[in-house]
């Protein structure tokens, strides 16, 4: 009761009711009022839990990444960043982020011919990228490109040309 508003935690539940309340939380079922009534004077309870389907998808994604091995993912991203930096340099596009292999990351930020302080310009840029099926974000006065290990070179070429 010292919390404002007071909350219901598992510490407040009888041991035999924990599973019922947990199952309601993760299934999205109605809150089991008879098993865990609200504190006096409280009118509602918003249960929040994560879907077991999302947990399963997350677990499968992690397994996939672990099966690929992190070294191969890192190597692939480095190849893509090498390709991107080379193509950007050849096209005369200014790169704002570090390009040296020791200083850079998997993110390349470039200067774009848009005024990124103007929302209309950002919208125009986002539309152009969306049509090309490219996800990139305006950052620090430039456009942030972050290839992932499954990125093909053709979408990166469409950013440049």
From TrEMBL:
TM spans (from-to): none
Gene3D superfamilies: Aspartate Aminotransferase, domain 1, Type I PLP-dependent aspartate aminotransferase-like (Major domain)
Signal peptide: none
SUPFAM superfamilies hit by this protein: PLP-dependent transferases (SSF53383)
InterPro entries xref list: PyrdxlP-dep_Trfase, PyrdxlP-dep_Trfase_major, PyrdxlP-dep_Trfase_small
Protein name as annotated: Aminotransferase class V domain-containing protein
Organism of this sequence: marine sediment metagenome
Lineage: unclassified sequences, metagenomes, ecological metagenomes
């Amino acid at each position: 009761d010292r919390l404002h508003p007071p909350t219901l935690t598992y510490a407040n539940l009888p041991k035999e009711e924990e599973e019922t309340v947990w199952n309601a939380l993760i299934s999205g079922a109605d809150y089991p009022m008879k098993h865990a009534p609200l504190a006096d004077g409280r009118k509602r309870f918003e249960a929040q839990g994560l879907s077991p389907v999302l947990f399963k998808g997350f677990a499968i994604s992690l397994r996939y990444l672990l099966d690929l091995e992190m070294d191969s993912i890192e190597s692939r991203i480095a190849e893509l960043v090498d390709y991107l930096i080379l193509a950007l340099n050849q096209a005369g596009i200014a790169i704002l982020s570090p390009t040296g292999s020791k200083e850079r990351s998997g993110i390349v930020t470039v200067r774009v011919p848009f005024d990124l302080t103007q929302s209309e310009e950002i919208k125009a840029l986002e539309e152009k990228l969306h049509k090309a099926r490219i996800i990139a974000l305006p950052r620090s006065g430039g456009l942030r490109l972050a290839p992932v290990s499954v990125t093909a070179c053709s979408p990166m070429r469409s950013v440049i040309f």
